[in-house]
């Protein structure tokens, strides 16, 4: 079968690999339907490493995905403890926590130090034709969620977890720095939760346009510190109750801290390219900011599916998909995403 494997910096190759065998106990073999390309994939693609983890041998990329169940091992219970069935379309949570350590037992499986993650070295990901996954990571999807939309449930799950960390309250004011898929979804969730004055900032026009279409009260294209100036002006120098950094976590972290009000909450979602977090100490200290670091997600797929389901879904994931590539063109898809060419929002690969 075909698979897209990363060999090193900017070296993604589509090649023939052997098919997976049969699913074991508690596992499912799925035929991949759609895989999203993520900002974190871009870090791995650009540097051949993420968070200091270097790729030591070719690895199949892709952690945002859905597929159709082809066969099942014994005791294949899905993420909601129901029997999985052959033919079901499922979205797959890419994280495999150990479920036994202190973090897992205390309800923080997203922090499990022993977890593996599909598409993060050394575990192969989903840009391929077939794959064995843990059944409990599978969440059956209703028909109205498209394959491409299903791949975005991971992004929505991460966004839900980020918003949970923000402890939003009705009528809170919110700023989102970075209007990539996660930023836009956070913004939308804030609106759904009854936040007022929801600001969104990005340096790319097309991303700002999407934020505006999705209902941001103010969506503004900014360079450098412009966003801070604009926001402080709009809020009468108060800042917002909760600010989300969902960009590249470079100078955007300081900007996000400056946008947060005294005593406010700052949620850091973006991942910095150089693994350094830089912020003026005085900004955070004088304001007494509560700073939360978002790490993956918890059991958020069921909520993500609810938001994307129904005749009139609260969140239309398909609108986020900017382009679909066949697997043969996976390298081109990564290259395009890496260059942030005009119009790139969420690129999806369909085998
Ligand atoms: Zn991702
Ligand atoms: Zn654990």
Compose a concise summary of this entry.
The protein is built from 11 helices and 20 strands. The protein has helices at 39-47, 102-105, 147-151, 153-166, 181-192, 205-213, 226-234, 251-259, 281-287, 301-308, 330-338, and strands at 2-8, 11-16, 27-36, 49-50, 53-54, 59-60, 64-72, 89-92, 95-96, 116-117, 130-134, 138-140, 174-177, 198-202, 218-221, 240-245, 260-268, 290-293, 321-326, 346-350. Helix 8 (251-259) links the parallel strand 16 (240-245) and strand 17.
Q: What this model shows, in words?
A:
The chain has 351 residues and is of the alpha/beta class. It has two domains: 2-154 and 298-350, Alpha-Beta Complex (Quinone Oxidoreductase, Chain A, domain 1); 156-293, Rossmann fold. 27% of the residues lie in helices and 28% in strands. The chain is built from eleven helices and 20 strands. It has helices at residues 39-47, 102-105, 147-151, 153-166, 181-192, 205-213, 226-234, 251-259, 281-287, 301-308, 330-338, and strands at residues 2-8, 11-16, 27-36, 49-50, 53-54, 59-60, 64-72, 89-92, 95-96, 116-117, 130-134, 138-140, 174-177, 198-202, 218-221, 240-245, 260-268, 290-293, 321-326, 346-350. The strands form five sheets. Strands 3, 7, 8, 11, 12, 19 and 20 form a seven-stranded mixed sheet that branches. Strands 15-14-13-16-17-18 form a six-stranded parallel sheet, sandwiched between helices. Strands 2-1-6 form a three-stranded antiparallel sheet, with helices on one face. Helix 6 links the parallel strand 14 (198-202) and strand 15 (218-221). Helix 4 (153-166) crosses helix 5, helix 4 (153-166) packs across helix 10 (301-308) and helix 7 runs parallel beside helix 8 (251-259). The longest helix is centred in the middle third of the chain and has 14 residues, at 153-166. The chain is globular, with a radius of gyration of 20 Å. The mean pLDDT is 96. Residues 97-98, 100-101, 103-104, 112, 114 line the site of one zinc ion.
């Amino acid at each position: 079968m075909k698979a897209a494997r990363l060999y090193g910096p900017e070296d993604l190759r589509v090649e023939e690999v052997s098919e997976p065998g049969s699913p074991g106990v508690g596992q499912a073999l799925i035929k991949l339907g759609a895989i999203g390309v993520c900002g974190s994939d871009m870090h791995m693609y650009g540097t051949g490493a993420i968070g200091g983890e270097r790729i030591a041998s070719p690895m199949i990329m892709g952690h945002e995905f859905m597929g159709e169940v082809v066969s099942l091992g014994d005791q294949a219970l899905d993420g909601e403890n129901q029997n999985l069935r052959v033919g079901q379309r499922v979205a797959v949570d890419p994280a495999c926590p150990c479920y036994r350590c202190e973090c897992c037992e205390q309800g923080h499986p997203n922090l499990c130090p022993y977890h593996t993650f599909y598409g993060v070295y050394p575990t192969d990901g989903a840009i391929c034709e077939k794959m064995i996954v843990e059944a409990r990571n599978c969440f059956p999807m209703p028909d109205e969620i498209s394959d491409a939309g299903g791949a975005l449930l991971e992004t929505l799950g991460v966004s839900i977890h980020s918003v949970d960390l923000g402890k939003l309250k009705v009528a809170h004011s919110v700023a989102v720095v970075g209007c990539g898929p996660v930023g836009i979804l956070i913004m939308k969730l804030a609106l759904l939760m009854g936040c007022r004055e929801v600001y969104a900032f990005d340096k790319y026009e097309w991303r700002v346009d999407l934020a505006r279409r999705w209902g941001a009260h103010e969506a503004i294209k900014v360079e450098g510190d412009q966003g801070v100036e604009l926001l402080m002006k709009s809020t009468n120098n108060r800042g917002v109750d909760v600010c989300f950094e969902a960009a590249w976590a470079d100078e955007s972290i300081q900007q996000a801290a400056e946008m947060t009000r005294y005593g406010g909450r700052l949620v850091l979602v973006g991942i910095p390219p150089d693994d350094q977090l830089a912020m003026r100490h005085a900004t955070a200290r004088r304001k007494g900011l509560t700073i939360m670091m978002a790490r993956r997600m918890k059991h958020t797929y069921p909520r993500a599916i609810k938001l994307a389901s129904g005749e009139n879904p609260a969140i239309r994931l398909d609108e986020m998909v900017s382009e679909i590539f066949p697997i043969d063109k996976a390298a081109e898809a990564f290259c395009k995403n890496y260059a942030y060419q005009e119009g790139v929002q969420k690129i999806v690969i369909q085998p």
